[in-house]
Amino acid sequence: MAATLSDVAKRAGVSKKTASRVINNEDTVAAATRRKVLAAIEELGYVPNEWAQRLASGNSRIVGYLIGDYLSPYSAHVLNGLLDVADAAGHHVSILRIDIDDPQQIERVITMARLRRMEGIVLAPPCHSSPRLMGALQEMAFPFVQHSPSDRCSGCAWVSAADEQGSYDAAWHLLRLGHRRIGFIQGPVDLYVSRARLAGYKRALKEADIAVDESLIKPGDWGFESGLEYARELLSLPEPPTAIMANNDVPAAGAIQAAWERGVNCPGQLSVVGFDDVPLAKQIAPPLTTVRQPIYDIGATMMSILIEEIIPGIKSNHAIEVPTELVIRHSTGAVRNQQDA
Amino acid sequence: MAATLSDVAKRAGVSKKTASRVINNEDTVAAATRRKVLAAIEELGYVPNEWAQRLASGNSRIVGYLIGDYLSPYSAHVLNGLLDVADAAGHHVSILRIDIDDPQQIERVITMARLRRMEGIVLAPPCHSSPRLMGALQEMAFPFVQHSPSDRCSGCAWVSAADEQGSYDAAWHLLRLGHRRIGFIQGPVDLYVSRARLAGYKRALKEADIAVDESLIKPGDWGFESGLEYARELLSLPEPPTAIMANNDVPAAGAIQAAWERGVNCPGQLSVVGFDDVPLAKQIAPPLTTVRQPIYDIGATMMSILIEEIIPGIKSNHAIEVPTELVIRHSTGAVRNQQDA
DNA sequence: GGCCATAATGACACCGGTATCATGAGCGAG
DNA sequence: CTCGCTCATGATACCGGTGTCATTATGGCC
């Protein structure tokens, strides 16, 4: 059906190899020959078969993007960055979705990676909380980059936002507005980012000479429901916080909804700060003050270092922390006097 | 490095073809032989090379997902459905992102599809508004499914939500609450879905004996900003609407924010209805009344019919409309008497 | 004019599988 | 015992490219 390299070669009156040289822009082809081959390609509408090329040349140029569960808006945005860089470099991105808690699925990842002859993998956050998976990958010497570091894997490559600093900045923003009781809704506590962001919050409080009140710190799972639920709990406290920081914009939106539910004005009576700056942040009312991570850039950077350095085995420092930026919108305001509240 | 089929065959003392038979579960292999081969596979840790299999067998099992611009939260959710079905069927999904307005990009799509030997393509909404692309695909007899129909392509396969009916239901919900002036923010007017949803709105108004006031109908582009902007315009009208329907949840959130900006209470003074029921819908305050589309299922259905019927060339009716469901949350309420407003 | 370096090209094996068809073994029937 | 048939298996070509290395043509130099 489709024209093959042999067809092109025959038509141009050259060997397969010479036709191949033209396609790959090798420089040892005479100008006249090149023209003949290009003409044949044009006439036949030839398009090479990538899979045959990859098989023959021995490099698959396929990288995996491993995400726990489903593709979220957040990971979709990371994926945009991954895809742009991968496309430009002629690499494919194969999406692997797994349930990280199921040990069998980890086998499946390894199998898929080998089945598809992937050359490397990008790991989305919850994935590198699995010691089994990390162990298996390291044992196989399988190239990978993590999105955010993990303490189980020292020396591993990662790209991450400056979580601790970002959280610290957000906390100081609230402190400067006069808030003294600041609630904190964490993400999954076994994740590095959750702990880093909590650490930033605590560092800021310490600098401001405010004792950490553990009753104001709640766990969470990055979901909307957890933000909603824990914010309700915080607002029900005998002495509720005047501000809530969430580890992520989605639970921050939950906190705003919790305030709305009971008629607590935001930012009048409750300030809320998120983290990430996903599209949601500016789509809610009030628009959310949040710590912007360059999500797209993190994706692009991970793919760059994976393709350019890690897969070729170039040694370099693959721990990249990118700065965050506090984006002040309308969900935060000066703390009111008690009688106003 | 990795064991090949030849290695397995050698170790098991059989021919490559027999080893291949075992791998593909062909039934003409003696039980004893099968055991030997399986043992060899186990010992060598053999995993077949999918690309070699695909090259040799002549079917690539690759399908494309073509989206305009970037992967949005909405298309990411469609993709989840696509991926689940594709994975189960052993197919790969290759994401193609293009700028639909650039004619050169259309060439690129065709080239990529041929380069990667894709067997079919799923087209996300804005893509089938390009007559050039559709023409090229039809001319090549390239298998594809559209997400939502397009009038430029009669007889083409598509899967879509019941847009007209969903919009009609939403409009009646508002009518029953007593609303007589209902603003409408459309999506891109050249898209089928935009027109279908507008048609449902008009049908409901007609049934309720309400004349369509064109000043209440605004265009839009599915973006948040357009919802915000057009809602501002609607609220600035001398006789503003008491409710706004948007073609999509994102601009509906924009409408809610526009109301918030000027202190218009939602749903007290303004009801807002969206469309799609993306996660955003329940993450805003007030939670959005919207028309739920089974987004994931639409993705899954598109992939199913593409793989099972369209690529094999089985004739059947590939125009599938899936029902929508009105989800009533808190952004809609009974219209108030004028003096309250 | 003869020699050698260099540029251009082709023959052929190979990547890791599958498909076709021939062949040999085993077995029941005549 | 032999024929004919089915079942299991293997030899070999092939998918559509790339890599290696040998070969041929060309040109510069002594």
Give your account of this protein's structure.
2 copies of one chain form a homodimer. By secondary structure, chain A is of the alpha/beta class. Chain A has 3 domains: 5-48, lambda repressor-like DNA-binding domains (434 Repressor (Amino-terminal Domain)); 62-161 and 295-323, Rossmann fold (3-Layer(aba) Sandwich); 163-293 and 326-340, Response regulator (Rossmann fold). Chain A has helices at residues 5-12, 16-23, 31-44, 50-57, 73-88, 103-115, 131-139, 163-176, 192-207, 224-235, 249-261, 280-283, 295-310, and strands at 62-68, 92-98, 120-123, 144-147, 157-161, 182-185, 217-218, 243-246, 271-276, 289-292, 319-322, 325-327. A 6-stranded parallel sheet of chain A has the order 2-1-3-4-5-11, sandwiched between helices. In chain A, α1 (5-12) crosses α3 (31-44) and α10 (224-235) crosses α11. At the A-B interface, α4, α5, β2, α6 and α11 of A face α4, α5, β2, α6 and α11 of B. Chain A binds a DNA duplex (30 and 30 nucleotides) through residues 4-6, 14-18, 20-21, 23-24, 28-30, 33, 48-58.
